Amino acid sequence: xxxxxxxxxxxxxxxxxxxxxxxxxxxxxxxxxxxxxxxxxxxxxxxxxxxxxxxxxxxxxxxxxxxxxxxxxxxxxxxxxxxxxxxxxxxxxxxxxxxxxxxxxxxxxxxxxxxxxxxxxxxxxxxxxxxxxxxxxxxxxxxxxxxxxxxxxxxxxxxxxxxxxxxxxxxxxxxxxxxxxxxxxxxxxxxxxxxxxxxxxxxxxxxxxxxxxxxxxxxxxxxxxxxxxxxxxxxxxxxxxxxxxxxxxxxxxxxxxxxxxxxxxxxxxxxxxxxxxxxxxxxxxxxxxxxxxxxxxxxxxxxxxxxxxxxxxxxxxxxxxxxxxxxxxxxxxxxxxxxxxxxxxxxxxxxxxxxxxxxxxxxxxxxxxxxxxxxxxxxxxxxxxxxxxxxxxxxxxxxxxxxxxxxxxxxxxxxxxxxxxxxxxxxxxxxx
Length: 432
What we know:
Largest sheet: 8 strands, mixed
Number of domains: 2
Shape: globular
Number of strands: 18
Distance between the termini: 43 Å
CATH superfamily of the largest domain: NAD(P)-binding Rossmann-like Domain
Oligomer: single chain
């Protein structure tokens, strides 16, 4: 007997064209006795015909499917009783905006598997779009940088960069950035923005995506300690990667930084990142953050920076997208249509676009959607190996009896509508 599996269309916004499983991988999974039903979509990067060619069904109603895959959050009215759903739930930090969704799933006795929590025994994520968030994030940030400089009357090579979604492919993007890199190598940068230092907070998958694009430019890498020494020299482009020990310091002057101690006792540390801000032209935030950690950049940091009439910092690319989080001035998220706002530090307000008085902030919260086909193919390639176990599992049994790989069991947030032991702490947020 074939098992039924649904693929939900994405409808977070008009830009969300990704899919959790692509046609070529569905063809492989059909051989394992799984029958796929795909919700139609007018914006998906893969057309219905491509799914039909691999013998998947196009069906609006997925109510017959006991297991349904998606990418982003699903609306509360979509859920059916006692079904299993797999998507990026964004609930593990107690995100307020997703608590009604989680509460509805609990009421209906649903099972929830969160891609973000599919990790190995060392806690390393196995399923992610991080590289593509980095690729799109730096491109949109460089676009904003070019637009902001032009607004200020500064001719610059970054003005040629388009928004990510305006390119047809990653190949076209890399070709365009390479050409701009040749121009910078040949002509240098305008004296008014030189040296141009791009700071990258973090060194994981997102950071590597950012650096994949920056490495197409003639950017010289320097250490955090060197940033202050190069601030007055040359028409050069620089990049600097910040690790935890560069961003925080112990509160007690007699203590020394120790990474595991910081992870386990973040309250013993404070941010020291403000000392780098005056030297950066662009800041890319690629770090994982929760409220227990010090902020990377506070509103006060930006307010003090902008007492200077023309500070060097023009744009922050906040790929991590935590509202008033690591970047406290991230007041709300944006989308690919209007990817940035300008943060007015005096009024603590966000002005849509790049023409306001203050630092420009790029904070698109579903960046990989701007590279929908390539990001979906990469994602699906990893997800497909877990699909048979997820679809074939019997979720009616007790939690300890469910036959799931350890990686998937770690990601099971709800079982029969109840928070599993590792996620009991979320109850305090659901109640609110």
